[in-house]
Specification:
The protein is an alpha/beta fold. It contains 10 helices and 10 strands. The chain is about 30% helix and about 25% strand.
């Protein structure tokens, strides 16, 4: 890819390490589809072992930004980007970096669950490891640990040979989370993971996020303001003006973004006055 120059109570966060380790950081990121610029000068620190929520109206570049974070944007014909994305200080777009290695370290869960429908639940969990050529020392242990972290083990442990497509929508989404966690990513990106799920399944996905954040950095795109407030530590509000590329208007601790934002546009959005 050619780079172009440049209102419910929020969750109680678990104890965090004393140091402010940076999980993944965007520095002056811009994005284009052909000559059309869709993002401009995005600077965002997504701290390690925290949940960062990306909020904002449709079409402001949130999902594009998410795909830039694990080098999926470059798979789109004609797409390009500028700026840097650093994972613990290392530029993931550096000339010595391989996109496949980056995608193993920075996993992605999509809006629509995408397990391999004819593949067994067990093999779905292991598929990411096999496709990336990683050594599997104890497959049974990996399957149990990954499904447990995704909150699915007790529901499927007696039918691991059943097809992944036989699960409900919420279970399939948790299976995709388990598949991502099996390769032990450092960052997990989630693009509206609950938009097609019922409230019970949504609640279980949110519980899973709270359970895994102590060991993996989570970045989630959501249009559900209650969800953003429940699950995240930090919110970044994206917006797009007519004829302009998307940009970040405001970033801050989630409770401040919802209760005392610095920008009036942020207040209007989180309180449902537009978007």
């Amino acid at each position: 890819m050619t780079a172009v120059p440049a209102s419910q109570t929020p969750r109680q966060a678990p104890p965090r390490p004393a140091t402010r380790a940076v999980g993944i950081e965007a520095l002056g990121v811009g994005a284009w589809f052909g000559r059309h610029q869709v993002l401009a000068d995005v600077n965002l620190e997504m701290r390690a072992r925290h949940v960062t929520a990306l909020i904002g109206p449709s079409g402001c570049g949130k999902s594009t930004f998410l795909r830039i974070l694990n080098r999926m944007h470059e798979l789109v014909p004609g797409a390009s980007m500028g700026g840097e994305v650093r994972l613990d200080g290392d530029d993931i777009y550096g000339p010595e970096k391989r996109a496949t290695d980056t995608r193993r370290q920075i996993g992605m869960v999509f809006q629509k669950p995408n397990p391999f429908p004819a593949m067994s639940i067990r093999d779905n969990v292991l598929s990411g490891l096999r496709l990336s050529g990683m050594t599997i020392n104890s497959a049974d242990e990996v399957v149990e640990q990954s499904l447990t972290k995704a909150g699915l083990w007790t529901e499927v442990r007696n039918r691991l040979s059943a097809p992944g497509g036989s699960l409900s929508g919420g279970q399939q989404q948790r299976l995709c989370i388990a598949r991502s966690l099996a390769v032990k990513p450092r960052v997990l990106l989630m693009d509206e993971p609950c938009s097609a799920l019922d409230p019970a399944s949504t609640r279980r996905i949110e519980q899973t996020i709270g359970e895994i954040v102590h060991e993996v950095t989570v970045v989630i795109v959501t249009h559900n303001m209650q969800q953003a407030r429940r699950v995240s530590d930090t919110c970044a509000f994206f917006m797009v003006e007519e004829g302009q590329p998307g940009m970040i208007v405001e970033v801050g601790p989630t409770e401040k973004i919802f209760s005392d934002p610095a920008d009036g546009r942020t207040a209007d959005y989180v309180h449902g006055r537009f978007g």
